[in-house]
Specification:
Blueprint: E1 2-8, H1 20-23, H2 28-38, E2 42-48, H3 52-62, E3 68-72, H4 81-89, E4 94-98, E5 120-123, H5 128-135
Parallel strand pairs: 1-2, 1-3, 3-4, 4-5
Helix pairs in contact: 3-4
């Protein structure tokens, strides 16, 4: 069974509560259960942190032993050279995911320090962006 880690960054613990017009009304924990039901042949784990260093530590921890990583670094996407370097330094392929279409938002969200080091980028499909990312590892 393939192992895929979903890593979510800052403020994504507020999904279902935060800006529901942008991010929806479902918590990630609820959606994670749905994903596990949808992809029974994949061992899907989930980690969330609001702290940049903890995200980097998790990438280091799973980046040599898992089959895939789905990363929504949230606001750190546009600011963290460190997370980009962490992805560059690991072996496990990473798919960058965003719930919203970042190109429909503020100009600073059009830059990603993560994208150049990933297998691919999926954005703008709501929580289904994660399902599309899981499919990329099948």
């Amino acid at each position: 069974m393939k192992k895929v880690m979903i890593i979510n960054g800052p403020n994504l613990n507020l999904l279902g509560k935060r800006e529901p017009d942008v991010y929806g009304k479902v918590s990630f924990e609820e959606f994670h259960k749905e994903l596990k039901e949808q992809f029974k042949t994949i061992d899907l784990e989930y980690f969330q942190s609001n702290i940049e260093g903890e995200l980097i530590d998790k990438l280091h921890e799973v980046g040599f032993s898992y089959d895939g990583i789905i990363l929504n670094a949230a606001a750190y996407t546009h600011t963290s050279v460190g997370i980009g370097d962490a992805i560059k330094g690991i072996e496990t392929p990473v798919v960058e995911v965003h719930i919203s279409n970042t190109f429909n938002r503020e100009a600073f969200r059009h830059q990603s320090y993560i994208s150049p080091h990933t297998k691919g980028v999926i954005l703008g499909f709501g929580l289904q962006s994660y399902a599309l990312a899981v499919q990329s590892f099948i």
